[in-house]
Amino acid sequence: MSLILCIETGTDVCSVGLAENGVLTALRESCGRDHARNVAVYVDELLRERDIDADEIDAIAVGKGPGSYTGLRIGVSFAKGLCYGLRKPLIAIGSLDALVEVAREDAEAGIVDVEDFERATLCPMVDARRMEVYTQLFNGRGEALSEVEAKVIDEQSFAEEIASAEEFVIFGNGAAKCAGTLSERVKLIDIAPSARGLARLAQEALDAGRTEDIAYFEPFYLKNFVVTTSKKKLF
What we know:
By secondary structure, this protein is of the alpha/beta class. Helix content is 29%, strand content 24%. The strands form 2 sheets. Strands 6, 7, 8, 9, 10 and 11 form a 6-stranded mixed sheet that branches. A 5-stranded mixed sheet has the order 3-2-1-4-5, sandwiched between helices. Helix 1 crosses helix 2 (69-86). It is globular, with a radius of gyration of 18 Å. The protein starts with a strand and ends in a 27-residue tail after the last helix.
């Protein structure tokens, strides 16, 4: 049995889960700006809840981005520290891939209102501020159809893909702001980033030996972090 600790902090959702053989068995989540404080608390709560010692964990999986610079740094730094201290492997999963996994799980459970999910084109969107999102296209089986990109959304965005798709489904914390701008043929569903999207993908990666170098691994920011000077007069 493989026991994997899953951490996703790349958006305003701080999510920590435990997965056994690719199946999520416990979860803690909150929405806000307290990731640095909550992530360690959630890990401790989950281990205590399941009566598991940290040494029993086989690997630690983390959402690698793209997403919030600060959120990613918090999750990845915490995961790397645990891996180093416990001498466990680090698994990095694309945050858009994980978001698609959440959507697929909810579709299988009948939670989302999409008539033929398997034949739909999936477009997860992570907010990148203003009208920009981090996004990528997938089919209903979770297979990538395009590369990850930072995209400014306007009326012509994905026009060809929307026109040719049986159903074009958008979701994630960047999707709602785009729904009114894109074609009326777009279907918006309520799917939030979550550590539960890491469970199966992390198990597949561990089984295939796809782990990261703890010393050198960095989050997938996609865009460079830009430091700006505050316009407020402090003195």
